[in-house]
Amino acid sequence: MGCGGGTLFYPLLITLSVALITYNIIISANSPLKQDFPGSSTSSSDISIDPVIELPRGGGSRIRGKRTRLFHTAVTASDSVYNTWQCRVMYYWFKKVRASAGPGSEMGGFTRILHSGKPDKFMDEIPTFVAQPLPSGMDQGYIVLNRPWAFVQWLQQTDIKEDYILMSEPDHIIVKPIPNLARDGFGAAFPFFYIEPKKYEKVLRKYYPEERGPVTNIDPIGNSPVIVGKAALKKIAPTWMNVSLAMKKDPEADKTFGWVLEMYAYAVSSALHGVSNVLHKDFMIQPPWDTEVGDKYIIHYTYGCDYDMKGKLTYGKIGEWRFDKRSYDSSPPPKNLTMPPPGVSQSVVTLVKMINEATANIPNWGS
Question: Domain named Hydroxyproline O-arabinosyltransferase-like: which ranges (predicted)?
Fold first, then answer.
């Protein structure tokens, strides 16, 4: 059942948030942020650099003699047609995969954090928390800045039963049951090749000063997919919000990080709070570059998939056959998308099959 959650407190929260955001933006324009963000009692310089590891082939993570460590899956979204159809597909597969996992599964509840400020007609289909967007103009046209602010509201106003959170995205499709990969105070995250803290150390030192330790303490991650302890995320989220806003306000950081600015902000904020992450390169795949699903847990369909009718990838050129989520920004994809031609990679074939199954079974698809 969808829930608005905390509606009576929205005016107070917005007032407090504007004051907090304005204060941080003012100081960010003139000085480093180190004095404004709480850190862990453990020195970040004592945290070892995390290896990139393969996920356990068994797929399970329940340890004999210990209780299952449930995590709650949370997805932020706007009320756009584009975000909404992706959320509906994502939630369909979340439910089906969780049901298939059986006893001992560590997949707990699910929440769409809707940062439009008002309920939509899918509240009863997808468990939903309605968050307020940033004040008008605060995101400077970069709508992703609403993500950390939405998480702050959700974490503060909702009684989340699980002890861990999986931060996911609308364009994720869960392929098989996900175990709780977080361990011993470490989060679990997917490493992105384009998040390069060492390369951009000069800019990042504004937000992660030298006394915090080497810049390699900043993991090459975004906020998703990440599994992290709920208590840790409650500390990280306000910092993530403020660092994101400060970076967007900083012309050098904004130009350097561009569309991945909010990802860098999360990585910095996690490091500021002493939360390191074990990096799982098998957490997800990204077709068409990753050609096999294999033992991965998530398909992330962020890239367009373009092929000729011989099954050859024509990336950079619109193919004779194509699937690109951006083709459906104003209306959902139709049922029964045409399957790719012979020779197209297994990951792309699986993606289209899974979208077709979801649209065939979700009630009132296209409404």
Answer: 71-365
What is the C-alpha to C-alpha distance for residues 279 and 188, in angstroms, rounded to an integer?
Answer: 6
Please give the model's pTM, rounded to 2 decimal places: 0.83
- Inter-residue contact 64 to 98 (CB < 8 Å): no
**By C-alpha distance, which of 274, 267, 289 is closest to 196?**
267
117: part of which helix (H) or strand (E)? Answer: none
Q: Name the residue among 77, 69, 72, 163 with its Cα closest to residue 112.
A: 77
C-alpha distance across the termini of the chain, in Å: 19
> In 3D, which of 51, 28, 32 has the Cα closest to residue 211?
32
The amino acid present at 363, given as its one-letter code, is P
> Are residues 73 and 168 in contact, defined by beta-carbon separation less than 8 angstroms?
yes
For the record, the structure tokens of 214 come out as 């080497």
Closest among 66, 71, 27, 20 to 241, alpha carbons compared: 20
pLDDT in tens, 202-240: 999 999 999 999 999 999 999 999 999 999 999 999 999
Q: Which of 195, 166, 51, 36 has its CA nearest to residue 108? A: 166
pLDDT digits (tens, 9 = 90+) for 13-68: 443 444 444 334 333 333 334 333 223 333 333 322 233 333 333 333 344 445 57
